[in-house]
């Protein structure tokens, strides 16, 4: 029997509700298998930890995670703590510490979900956005001088390295190659950003020669937002910089029906470190503690976690259970226009995974 060691970091707000739900579906899967089981270690890092200790996670926190098979993360964000502290102090620390340089965000319209684009059929919207997750606009390079004075100035420098761009392009081309349409759109802004984005385009063209069976095109990021709305079926796999993909993937999640459904994986493709899976939504303090949180984004993140572990059969079964449940409007949470509670949705998915009698 294989034992997978999973770290759970619920974080703040509704993270504390959806991560136990994610654990429950993993346990429900394990109950049907004599091949694998899951062992969880929970870490109470986040806003409450910050109030007690002045940091979002302990200095040796990464060491506690280093030998895990995967990390399941909820959300970091607290209305009383500035966002750059919650983000840089926890999530980004893990992403950067473990060089999870590929952020992968699948988007589909799940059965039963009322998506906002009226002219778009469910089969027209089936995307994976690959976000460069280690440098670019969020590299942390920059500074602020003369604070409070009329001559105050600040910079955030977009830093791109050849190594960084090559590895994300290669990852994206490989992912596109593994999907039926073998279609990649490289998102850029090289018309206005004349240095880093031009290098980005050049490297895309170089890496493309290694993947002759992948069709690829280039799209300016602003035009890409319009294309996602007007011609969703023309897209399949997309690769974009840290900032651009951040924005595009929120748009993608909204077009698929709800922020509460969308999953993501922060992947170290070289598998030197554990990868981290999380719903893309934030801590949503407005609905916390009321059982209103949609756990589907977490369940779908668990599907990605299972795929990463190589448990493809379990991943497929869980995805089928999720789709079975979303197809039933009586099991929709409030964000989807329904009245179901987190607990009811979780129980329904677990019941769907239980062996038939
Ligand atoms: P953060 O500051 O951590 O990003 P946030 O308060 O901005 O958190 P988001 O998660 O970004 O919240 O989501 C915006 C809104 O969408 C929330 O206020 C909430 O009402 C809704 N929402 C987000 N996730 C879910 C979910 N899983 N289930 C139900 N509603 C959700
Ligand atoms: Mg937010």
From TrEMBL:
Keyword terms of this UniProt record: Manganese, Metal-binding, NAD, Oxidoreductase
Q: List, alphabetically, the PROSITE patterns matched.
A: IDH_IMDH (PS00470)
**InterPro entries from the xrefs?**
ICDH/IPMDH, IsoCit/isopropylmalate_DH_CS, IsoPropMal-DH-like_dom, TTC_DH
Q: What is this protein called?
A: D-malate dehydrogenase (decarboxylating)
Q: Which reaction does it catalyse?
A: (R)-malate + NAD(+) = pyruvate + CO2 + NADH
Q: Domain Isopropylmalate dehydrogenase-like: where?
A: 5-349
Report the EC code(s) recorded for this entry: 1.1.1.83
**What is the required cofactor set for this protein?**
Mg(2+); Mn(2+)
Record-linked Pfam families: Iso_dh
Hey, which family's this protein in?
Belongs to the isocitrate and isopropylmalate dehydrogenases family.
Give an example GO molecular function. Answer: tartrate dehydrogenase activity
Q: Which Gene3D superfamilies match?
A: Isopropylmalate Dehydrogenase
């Amino acid at each position: 029997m294989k034992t997978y060691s999973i770290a759970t970091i619920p974080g703040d707000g509704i993270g504390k509700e959806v991560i136990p739900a994610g654990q429950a579906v993993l346990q429900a899967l394990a109950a049907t298998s004599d091949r694998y089981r899951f062992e969880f270690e929970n870490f109470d890092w986040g806003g409450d930890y910050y109030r007690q200790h002045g940091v979002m996670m302990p200095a040796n926190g990464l060491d506690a995670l280093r030998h895990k098979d995967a990390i399941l993360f909820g959300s970091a964000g607290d209305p009383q703590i500035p966002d750059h502290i919650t983000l840089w102090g926890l999530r980004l620390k893990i992403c950067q510490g473990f060089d999870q340089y590929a952020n992968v965000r699948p988007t589909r319209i799940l059965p039963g979900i009322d998506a906002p684009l009226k002219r778009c059929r469910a089969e027209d919207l089936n995307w994976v956005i690959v976000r460069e997750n280690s440098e670019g606009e969020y590299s942390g390079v920059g500074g602020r001088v003369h604070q409070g004075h009329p001559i105050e100035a600040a910079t955030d420098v977009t830093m791109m390295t050849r190594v960084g761009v090559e590895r994300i392009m290669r990852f994206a081309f490989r992912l596109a190659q593994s999907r039926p349409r073998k279609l990649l759109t490289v998102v850029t802004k090289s018309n206005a950003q004349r240095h880093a984005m031009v290098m980005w385009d050049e490297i895309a063209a170089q890496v493309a020669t290694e993947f002759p069976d992948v069709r690829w095109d280039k799209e300016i990021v602003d035009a890409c937002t319009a294309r996602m709305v007007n011609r969703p079926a023309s897209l399949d796999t997309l690769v974009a910089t840290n900032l651009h993909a951040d924005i595009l993937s929120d748009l993608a999640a909204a077009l698929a029906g709800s922020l509460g459904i969308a999953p993501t994986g922060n992947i170290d493709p070289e598998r030197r470190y554990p990868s981290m899976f999380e719903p893309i939504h934030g801590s949503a303090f407005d609905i916390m503690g009321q059982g209103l949180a949609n756990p589907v984004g977490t369940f779908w993140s668990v599907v990605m976690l299972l795929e990463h572990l190589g448990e493809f059969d379990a991943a497929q079964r869980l995805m089928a259970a999720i789709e079975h449940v979303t197809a039933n409007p009586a099991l929709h949470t409030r964000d989807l226009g329904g009245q179901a509670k987190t607990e009811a949705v979780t129980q329904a998915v677990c019941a769907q995974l239980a062996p038939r009698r």
